[in-house]
Amino acid sequence: MASLVGIDVGGTFTDLIYARDGVRMDTVVKVPSTPDDPSQGLIDALKAADIDVSTLDLIVHGTTIATNAVIERRGARCALITTKGFRDLLEIGRRDRQRMYGLTGVQNPLIRRAMRWEVVERMSSRGEVLTALDEGYLRELAAALAKEDIKAIVISFLHSYANPVHEQRAKAILQAANPHWEVVISSEVVREYYEFERTSTATVQAYLQPLISQYAGNLERKLKGEGFGRQTYVMQSNGGLIPLDQLAQSSAKIVRSGPAAGVTAAARIGARAGFNKVITADMGGTSYDVAVVIDGAPRISDTTNLDFRVPLRLPMIDVHTIGAGGGSIAHLDRGGVLQVGPHSAGAVPGPICFGRGGTAPTVTDANVVLGRINPEHPIGLKHLTRLDVEAARKAMAVLGKSLGLDVERTAEAILTIVNHVMARRTRLLTVEQGHDPREFALVAFGGAGPLHGAAIMREVGIRTLLVPPHPGVLCALGCALADLRYDFSQTVLSPIDSLDAAYVRDVLSAQRAEGESRIATSGARVDTVQVDVVAEMSYVGQIHTLRVPIETDWGPSRIREAFEETYLAEYGNTLPGISVVLIGLKTAVHGIRTKADEMPSTPVAGRAAQPRIHRETYFGRWIRTPVYDRRELAAGMQFKGPAIIEQVDTTTVIEPDMVARVDAYQNILVEMA
User: Fold this and answer.
1) Considering only CA atoms, which of 668, 665, 664 is closest in space to residue 646?
2) Is the pLDDT of residue 259 over 60?
């Protein structure tokens, strides 16, 4: 098997796994991320692992650079050119509101109104030219835009999904005027009829493209400088990989790259351990990402809101993210009430106990104060030999004085609040979506996930907590496990009764051919190509649609049967006598990579687990708690809470009244006693 590294560049830490035989982990590394130049964090991780980069066959990585650029508004300065009358589409949106009650709230569009322009042109929904493109005005506009300091231009015309000729012509005119502009047309990003979502997605693509292009170039140069001359792959938000040299033209597709990798790995580990329903809980230094996996398949969302009125109309693993991580800052709001997050201390300056200039108490500081994190065991911090417990306690004392609490109860309050926030978001994806959390296992990972997984399990009512063998670097493992994937979509808008079966076959054949072509030119070693086809359908008059798996050679009647079967399973009934509409066709083409058995089982041990030491840990009171070394835990071992399990990439907390055992795949399974 080829040797590879999987790397997840997070907001606080950059995680690496090295697999000499393909996937089995030989080396695990965590280093601080480098926000000013994320590519440097990746190089730092490779050096910390002491890997001869020239011997590697493959580097796969996930990154938060796109997510952070949108959230922090650090993308390129862009212009938008649209059909006359649609200049304000980005701000009108779906006429939704930031707050349900009242008209307050601030919108921060990616392109300000002064840089949005209209041009005379009109296309019908059937692709017929109603009004020709005003090319003369477009040339005048290009001359005016040349005086502006812009890096990218978005072109989004009405009904371009049906006929992109006007967008293509406008792009040619603009590129002739200035070849240095990044010009993005909506029909190449999303071939669907949702005007607002299509324009927004194209805007995100253009907003990120110069930044991502620069990042990809920097990374490629640095890797070549280290002796790596092969292809590098990047994790997409859909759970699949894309070559680095295709990244600039797909920048919107990596907005949730890292979290998607974590869900991919957690889904496989949960299924291998015998759980067909899994909640993935990824708690890092900055955020908490939660997703639901049923029968080994993460839920795919067609539209994801990155911010208020910034939707992304691309297939993405449905991951919900909130600002709750180890670096989340505890503070008092205007009413004097204790809050935790969403702001984070991040990698720089980090929590107070890191000794890098942090002054605000964080979740990590609270865990250190309560003895849950070993101060003699800093994770991912090579410059430290010991965490600064006293500095963290002093900060807790100052905060506690305002609350009338002592140091321990202040730290405990911080953990209670952040656990409640994460549990609330977990319930949103389970109870409020009609799922019984008692039927699920919670897979806790990320640098801080195993510290808080037991508390989330208790509060939500989940029966089993699963902590993988290397939870702190699971997103990096997910990168190593991923396959190539390309997604295509096309709006059809045809009643089933009058559907042109030949047209459907032609669209699906073209989508498949394009995906297979991209896989063939990716340079990746793939065993097989797998094609999944989905029809987006609804009854006439319905706003919401259903994703219906279909086969390429199905006719209209069989497609309708599949829709009714899916509708019945989802809603418990069908609507006889109502016409069915095929909204669009979607094809996912997967290049299945050669991989080793990434999670081999091991013989069950007959001996009991023995703690390495005991340490005073606070669980409502100070308790002498056994501390176990994860490397010494073998399959079949059992022990009771409270307990602490330490390893190179994270710490696991098992609360009182809980029991734990190690399964055949080296996972720790925790349940209520």
Assistant:
1) 668
2) yes
Chain centroid, CA 324 distance in Å: 15
DSSP 541-607: T-SS-EEEEE-TT--HHHHHHHHHHHHHHHHS---TTS-EEEEEEEEEEEEEE----SS---PPP-S
Give backbone dihedrals phi and psi of 84, rounded to 5 degrees, phi first.
-55, 130
Q: Is the peptide bond before 342 cis (omega within 30 degrees of 0)?
A: yes
Two tokens, residue 80: 């938008």
Taking the model in full, what pTM does it have? 0.89
Q: What are the b/e assignments for 274-294, b being 16+ CB within 10 Å?
A: ebebbbbbbbbbbbbbbbbbe
Q: Is 195 strand, coil or helix?
A: helix
What are the C-alpha distances in Å from 449 to residues 79, 286, 435, 458, 660? Answer: 41, 12, 22, 14, 16
Place of tokens 């987006």: 536
Backbone angles phi, psi at 242, to 5 degrees: -145, 140
Provide the token pair at 515: 């995906």
Measured in whole angstroms, how far is the alpha carbon of residue 505 from the centre of its chain? 33
Query: Which pLDDT score is estimated for 124?
Result: 96
The predicted model gives 336-343 an average pLDDT of 92
Query: Quick one: angle between helices 407-429 and 389-403, nearest 10?
Result: 80
Q: What are the pLDDT digits (tens) for 536-549? A: 999 999 988 999 99
Burial (CB count within 10 angstroms: exposed 0-12, middle 13-18, buried 19+), residue 550: buried
